[in-house]
Here is the input.
Amino acid sequence: MPDDMHRRYQDAHTAHQEHARTCTTCTDTQRCPTGQRVYDSFTRLQDAYLNRQRQLRR
Here is the structure.
């Protein structure tokens, strides 16, 4: 059974990449409000996934 948290983290990464590829406002260091929301979602899910993986390895 696929890991739901991993799937959500990967989906958020894809959404971030797609937004960054098409947004004319976003740069590597500055993001539009939508880009910032998408990036924050990706980083939050990535952190949660990686922290859980660390906990499982203990």
